[in-house]
Recover the amino acids of this structure.
């Protein structure tokens, strides 16, 4: 990498889409029209930031206008509650009854008010909601014992993950642990157990998205997923490609007014500049943790 590239700085004005490849600004209509032609568009989030959830709703609204045959998949729901999502879309539940039946407080736990506008959008427009997650104990078991130790009938409809790349290991190490003074990441701090668990989530989201595309007229599937499962083509996009789904868009948001070129390149198809986010809304237990403890507890 030459000295110019190493020190490149991309300015990012409010309410604009930035191309991470070269720092140019993308025309929103052109960008979202192109995204509406993909098989899958993944909208990354930090779970506790209200402004990101508003952005997801706005993007989903435009994509639905451009391509009405659309479904929205959510990391927040395990596959076993799919019948409840269907009931919600059909208007058969109050908001309180819906949250109770999906066991929101125990299964997910983040503030429901962050997500309810998007849930109501789906119901109002009869946009199918897809449960993308798997049974939580499966993640723990695969991490601890390995995939082959789990009987086929206990795999919650998943297939084995494609092997993790060294680049993904390095990325996860950077998420979970502070870099050294030289900026290097020690990949050895990320255990195989952690990688297996993380990839179980990645594969679950990918398998359930791919399953939704196996119909005569496939919808555009919009995925609402933690950004740690999406960035730099790792995680769920990598597992989707392994499943034969290649037309994938990844969109992210940021509140930063500028970016350094090397870290940004390849992170997503485009990044939207948000308004300054309001205070994060996080569960009380997480609010009590230090920033380092939160990074280790929540990898996405």
């Amino acid at each position: 990498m030459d000295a110019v590239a190493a020190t490149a700085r991309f300015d990012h004005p409010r309410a604009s889409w930035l191309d991470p490849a070269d720092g140019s600004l993308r025309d929103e209509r052109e960008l979202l029209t192109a995204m509406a032609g993909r098989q899958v568009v993944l909208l990354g989030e930090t779970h506790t930031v209200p402004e990101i959830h508003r952005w997801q709703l706005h993007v989903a609204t435009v994509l639905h206008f451009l391509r009405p045959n659309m479904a929205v998949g959510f990391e927040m729901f395990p596959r076993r509650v799919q019948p409840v999502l269907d009931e919600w879309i059909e208007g058969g539940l109050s908001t309180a009854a819906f949250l109770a039946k999906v066991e929101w407080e125990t299964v997910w736990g983040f503030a429901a008010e962050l997500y309810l506008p998007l849930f109501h959008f789906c119901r109002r427009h009869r946009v199918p909601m897809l449960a993308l997650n798997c049974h939580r104990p499966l993640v723990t078991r695969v991490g601890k014992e390995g995939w082959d130790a789990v009987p086929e009938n206990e795999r919650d409809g998943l297939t084995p993950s494609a092997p993790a790349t060294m680049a993904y290991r390095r990325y996860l190490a950077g998420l979970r642990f502070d870099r050294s003074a030289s900026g290097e990441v020690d990949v050895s701090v990320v255990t195989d157990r952690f990688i297996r668990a993380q990839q179980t989530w990645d594969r679950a989201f990918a398998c359930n998205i791919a399953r939704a595309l196996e119909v005569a007229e496939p919808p555009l599937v919009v995925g609402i997923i933690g950004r740690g499962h999406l960035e730099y083509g790792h995680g769920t996009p990598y597992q989707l490609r392994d499943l034969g789904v290649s037309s994938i868009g990844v969109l992210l948001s940021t509140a930063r007014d500028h970016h350094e070129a090397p870290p940004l390149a390849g992170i997503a198809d485009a990044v939207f500049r948000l308004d300054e986010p309001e205070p994060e809304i996080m569960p009380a237990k997480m609010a009590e943790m230090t920033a380092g403890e939160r990074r280790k507890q929540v990898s996405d």
Observations:
- The radius of gyration is 19 Å.
- The chain has 14 helices and ten strands.
- The first helix runs from residue 3 to 6.
